[in-house]
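Action item from last week, closing it out:
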Amino acid sequence: MLRAQTLVLTMIAMIAFAANSLLCRYALSHSDTDPASFTSIRILSGAVILWLITRLRTPQHGMQGNWRSAFALFGYAAAFSFAYVSLPAATGALLLFGSVQATMIGYGLMHGERLRGVRLIGFLAALAGLVALLLPGVSAPPLPGSVLMVGSGIAWAVYSLRGKGATDPTAVTAGNFCRAACFAVGLSIIMLPWSSIDLAGLAYAVLSGAFASGIGYVIWYMALSGLNSVEAATVQLSVPVIAGAGGVLILAEPLSLRLVLCAATVLSGVALVIIRK
């Protein structure tokens, strides 16, 4: 049984993660903000809030991180934004979550981990669910956006794997966000002829970067101290579900039977892999 504080922190973190999908999708579909500007503002606002948290918490140690991890973080955020130009919130969250887990599981297999029995069935089921979602059809998501979101998930998995074992995750995340801001500014300069932003888009990007990303990650790290690895992996199964519900209720997005079945297959498969006896 999780302690009450850990449970509350975990719930807030999962809502924050799902909120990133909703805020990005809403900004790109209900404002004049372009994906490059949204990415830059999101990363910059996240960097500012994490820098402030780091300075207030451990001013003597400062920020950590490295440029390779920062580039993976930027790649995740940029592909995420451009993918949501065409993807519904629920589909995007499922593709992101599924590709993250598939990449991390594949990395483990390449480095000696083995899947047998029920876990192997779960892994194959998760892959089958993702493939079924992407197959051509009336309700299939747009291929360019889907490819971008899968790439975003791979980049986030790389970032997560590079950050495993960090002694001070908050300081590492703050340093990576500040470095990633340099790449984000470069992207905005390249995309300047096509740039567009309004106050609504600016507000959504700041909310996504400073709160759903920056503070959301800090809350998640606080929750991790009360979760074991299985619990931490399992609770993240809720993110696509929360994003899907928000997409239907807030963004009035349609919920297709194909998406429901594929989501159930992917999430069930991942659950079988990460929940051990």
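Closing note: Residues 4-30 form the longest helix (27 residues).
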